[in-house]
Amino acid sequence: MPRKPREKSALCIHHVILRGINQQIIFEDEYDYLQFINVLKYYKETCEFKIYAYCLMNNHIHLLIEHMTVDLDLIMKKIEVKFVRWYNKKYQRSGYLFQDRYKSEPVNDMRYFRTVFRYIHQNPFHAGMEKTLGMYPWSSYNDYINMDASFVDINTVFDLFQSYDECISYLQVDSDEMCMEYYASSRLSDAEVLKIIARRTSCTSPSDFQRLDLATRNEYLQRLHYSGISIRQMSRLTGISRTAISTAVKKK
Hints:
Layout: E1 13-19, H1 30-46, E2 50-56, E3 60-66, H2 72-91, E4 103-107, H3 110-126, H4 141-145, H5 154-158, H6 164-172, H7 190-200, H8 206-210, H9 214-226, H10 231-238, H11 242-251
Antiparallel strand pairs: 1-3, 1-4, 2-3
Helix pairs in contact: 1-2
């Protein structure tokens, strides 16, 4: 079956996701993260694209990118090839690192641009990898906090807001707006889910969930569902019925 053509953005802006093959970890240590950022910086200059947001998770990558003179497919191919060559040499491996083609969605208006911008920066929080926004080191969040325009094209984004404070406040408001969701398409192991539960709730066992008041319990269930945990798996690990979880999720 031929591949479906990618949707093009009228603004040449796309939300891009790269993910490890078979959910493989991409970044083993901080040097791997730094190398990928260096590759982005290199091709940002040579291919003349703009980066408005990025987030490097352990097994997938988010980019908010505007391409101008060079086609997005060619940009992503160059980035992938250069990083994988370096990665394979470092770890003495061969073969693919990334799964299939990169995923992308077009951004056709600035309202949705703002949604994607916030979604990318809140990805570590919603995945349970940080308890406070800004603690995760491998995203462009702190470029905006520190007004550092040396790599990320922050000024274009700041122009969408009335002030610096309005932009940062927007970033910090916990949002359940969904974009091209990664976790919904992946299977999380029970061990991974238990780690997310520990990070995103105050519960460590099913009995802890049973003692929660209804409002708090529903809030926790909504958080966990947003992190990509299926209702079936959530029910099994929390002891809460699927019907109760479905009701809580629908309320959100």
